[in-house]
Amino acid sequence: MAMGSQEWATPIAAAKRPTDEQLIEVTRHIIDEAIARGPVVVVGRGAQEMLAERQDALHVFCYARRKALIARTMEREGVSAEEAARLVDETNKQRDQWVRLHWERDRRAHENYDLSVNTERLGIQGAADLIVTAARKRFGIS
Q1: SS3 label, residue 8
Q2: Mean pLDDT across the stretch 12-27?
Q3: What pLDDT digit, counting tens, does each position of 93-109 carry?
Q4: Which sign does the torsion angle of CA 46, 30, 3, 7 carry?
Q5: Which residues lie below 8 Å from residue 8, measured CB to CB, with a gap of 6+?
Q6: Under CATH, what is the fold of the domain 17-139?
Q7: Among candidates 96, 120, 10, which has minimal Cα distance to 46?
Q8: At 106, phi and psi to the nearest 5?
């Protein structure tokens, strides 16, 4: 579970649901270990808050209209429009609540990010290309 650190792995037989604080601690530990090994991309999990003070981070918010998210979810998950809408709404609600609860911030607030990218207009690959270009520019990578 924790990239080379056995102390964080709990035997399945003894496992119980961890608290949110334990999840954040383990996540922070895993992210720190990954960063120590070299460049890393962290998606979600409150990373924009956990890494807010780091000068070597590029914080990107990817977004699209609800309609586009529903269509993407229908295609990816093979579900109906109604189920996709439920999944999109529930996922965004949980993401919003997690960041608000643990960092007292609005997940969607522009001040949390260096760059906001519309994946509906650019597509996933176009958004990825733009983010790579921004990261190369920000960190002076050719």
Answers
A1: helix
A2: 82
A3: 999 999 999 989 999 99
A4: negative
A5: 1, 2, 26, 29, 30
A6: Rossmann fold (3.40.50)
A7: 96
A8: -90, 120
